[in-house]
Amino acid sequence: MAIPTKTMAVRLFEYGGPEKLIYAEYDLPPLGAHDILAKNFAGSVSRWDVKYRAGDLTRYQIPGRAAFPLPQQLGREAAGEVVAVGSTVSRFKPGDRVVGVTHPEDPNSIETARGLGNLSRNLAIPGHQAFGSYAQYLVRDEQMWLPLPDGVDYEQAGVALWPFSSSHRVVHDRLQVRLGDTVLITGASGGMGQATMQLCKLAGARVIATTRHANKAAVLRELGADAAVITTDAESACAEVFSLTGGEGVDHAVDYTGSPDLLRFIGSVMRLGGSIVVTSEQGREPVPFLASDLIRLELNLLGIRGARMNDMVTVLRLLGEHRINTRIAARFQLARVGEAHELLVNSRDLVGRIVVLPWAS
Questions:
Q1: Judging by beta carbons within 10 Å of its beta carbon (0-12, 13-18, 19+), is residue 172 exposed, middle or buried?
Q2: Which residues pair with 227 in a beta bridge?
Q3: What is the rounded CA–CA span in Å between residue 344 and residue 239?
Q4: Is pLDDT above 60 for 19?
Q5: What's the mean per-residue pLDDT of the chain?
Q6: CA atoms of 87 and 34, how far apart (whole Å)
Q7: How far apart (Å, rounded) are the C-alpha atoms in residues 229 and 249?
C-alpha cells in the first residue's frame, strides 16, 4: 500500500467566524524516522477551538510556551489506526489502534523533574502550537501516541482523553477527593464537568451539580449527579446546598465557568477548610474572594493547568475497563466542522461533547 502524501483537512488561515475554517486537500509532512502516520477516525470540537478560531487567544500566553500560530489545524484529540511508521519506531506497527497524546510533557524540563510535567515547557501541543486533528491523516512523533485499549470505540477515545485527564488531576491530585466527600461542580454539563462527576463518583464522593437552566437538571442527574441545583436564585440555591449537606457546606468545589456570580456562590456554600479549584480561563475578572474569606473559612484556593502523562494512562485504563463514558451531544463530518463551531457557541441545551468523524460520508 502506498503511503498517503495528502489529506483532506480543515485549516485556519485568518481569524474570524466559522467560514474561516477551510476544508480542502493539503500536503502531509514527510514521514520522519521517529514519526507515525495514523488514519484519524474520531476527534472533537472544543471551546478552545472556538476561541482560537475567533482570535480570542492572541494575547493569551502560557509561561514557557510558544504563541499560537497561523495557519493552524485545530483539534486537540484524535483516535485512529497506524498506517505507517518511521524507520526507528519500535513501539507501534501498522494496524495498531492509537489515541493521540493531549497533554505532552518535556522530559528535560525542570517542571517534569518536580513531578509537574503538565507545566513543562518547550511543547508543541496539537491544536495549539502544532497541527491538530481536523484531518483524515495525521503525522506525529511516536511519543505523541498511546496504545488504545481493546474494546474502546474510536468515538469514545476521540473525546475522552483531554477532559478526563485534566479532571483526574483535579480530583486525584489537587482536591484529593475521598470517600464520603461532597463535591460541587459548576459547568457540569460540558465534557470537563461530566468527567469530573464520574471520577468523583468513582472516588466514593457525592456530587452536587449546578445549572442555570432548569431543563438540564434531569440530564445532570442521569449523568451521575446526586443532586442538581438551579442557580438562577442564588439565595435559594445556597439554602438548598446547605440543606443537602446537613448545614455544613461542601468539602470541595470545581468551577468550569469563570462566572464571577457562580464563584461568589461557590464561596458562600463552602464548609470550613474546604477547597476550590478554578479552571476556566474565561474569567478575566479578579476572583471574588477576599483574604478575610480565605482566613475565616481556612479555604484552599487552587488552580489547574492540564494533566500529566500518568493521568492519561489512568484514563485509558478506565476506558478499557468501561468505567467511564462520555455523553455525545452531536456528530459532524469533517467538512461540516464550521457548523459544529456554531452549535457549540449558540446552543444553550447542549449537554455532552461534539465528535468530528473525518471519514464519515
A1: middle
A2: 208
A3: 32
A4: yes
A5: 94
A6: 7
A7: 14
Q: What is the SS3 string spanning the chain?
A: CCCCCEEEEEEECCCCCHHHEEEEEEECCCCCCCEEEEEEEEEEECHHHHHHHHCCCCCCCCCCCCCCCCCECCCCCEEEEEEEECCCCCCCCCCCEEEECCCCCCCCCHHHHCCCHHHCCCCCCECCCECCCCECEEEEEHHHEEECCCCCCHHHHHHHHHHHHHHHHHHHHHCCCCCCCEEEEECCCCHHHHHHHHHHHHCCCEEEEEECCHHHHHHHHHCCCCEEEECCCHHHHHHHHHHHCCCCCEEEEEECCCCHHHHHHHHHCEEEEEEEEECCCCCCCCCCCCHHHHHHHCCEEEECCCCCHHHHHHHHHHHHCCCCCCCEEEEEEHHHHHHHHHHHHHCCCCCCEEEEECCCC
Give the CA-trace dihedral at 199, 200, 204, 209, to 10 degrees.
-140
Q: Is the pTM of this model over 0.90?
A: yes
Is residue 9 predicted with pLDDT exceeding 60?
Answer: yes
pLDDT in tens, 301-343: 999 998 999 999 999 999 999 999 999 999 999 999 999 999 9
- Is the CB of residue 71 less than 8 Å from the CB of residue 12? yes
Query: Distance (Å, rounded) from C-alpha 124 to C-alpha 261?
Result: 35
